[in-house]
Amino acid sequence: MRTTVFSTPVLTPLLRLLAIMLLKLSGWKAVGRPLENAGFVLIGAPHTSNWDFVLMLLVVLKLRLRLFWMGKNSLFPAPVGWLMKWLGGIPVDRSRHHNLVDHTVRQYQENPELIVLIPPEGTRSRVKEWKTGFYHIAVNAGVPVLMGYIDAAKKEAGLADFFHPTGNIEEDMPAIRAFYADKTGINPDNT
């Protein structure tokens, strides 16, 4: 896998210290602990603001994760596309289907410690239904889903529990969504 902000020698430890300081100064708390055994799909919700991205970078740096994240391809324009990729980004063209689930599953097979962050809402706007790609990736790759969250009401963001999908999406999705029922996004009108 390519080098990112989370795996750049010398620079990553310095950025980690900066992240810890910025979280402290802003009053946000990073919840969770560094995870030694990787190989999971990380979902992050509620996704309601552009500030979610900055907060995610700070929390992930503090918790020492090495991850990649999926974002709409319009976040990767020239001349900043290289920067977004160095920040761990994987551009996704949401206007057409292109076997993203299958491609990502192959990446898990080739890289057993892969972590990919996917916002299940797929947008910062209010949605009634979540996208299910993250679920299908986890099931097909045989990896758990780690539930990451933002709770602006408590000014905390981080990692909660692992969810091991059964393959029965009709039962599993309500169980996953239930965890987020009491979480408030940065822009609560979009939660």
Draw up the topology in text.
Layout: H1 11-26, E1 29-31, E2 40-45, H2 51-62, E3 68-72, H3 81-86, E4 89-92, H4 100-110, E5 115-118, H5 133-141, E6 145-151, E7 156-163, H6 169-179
Parallel strand pairs: 1-7, 2-5, 2-6, 3-4, 3-5
Antiparallel strand pairs: 6-7
Task: Provide the descriptors you would attach to this structure in a database record.
191 residues; 6 helices; globular; seven-stranded mixed β-sheet
The average pLDDT value, as a whole number, equals 92
Largest sheet, if any?
Answer: 7 strands, mixed
Beta-strand content estimate = 15-25%
Instruction: State the secondary-structure class.
Output: alpha/beta
Give me the Rg, rounded: 16 Å
Spans where pLDDT lies below 50 across 5 or more residues: none
What's the order of the H and E elements? Answer: HEEHEHEHEHEEH
Count of strand segments: 7
**Global geometry:** globular
**What is the helical fraction, as a range of percent?**
25-40%
Question: Strand sequence of the main sheet, in spatial order?
Answer: 1-7-6-2-5-3-4
Taking the alpha carbons of the first and last residues, their distance comes to 33 Å
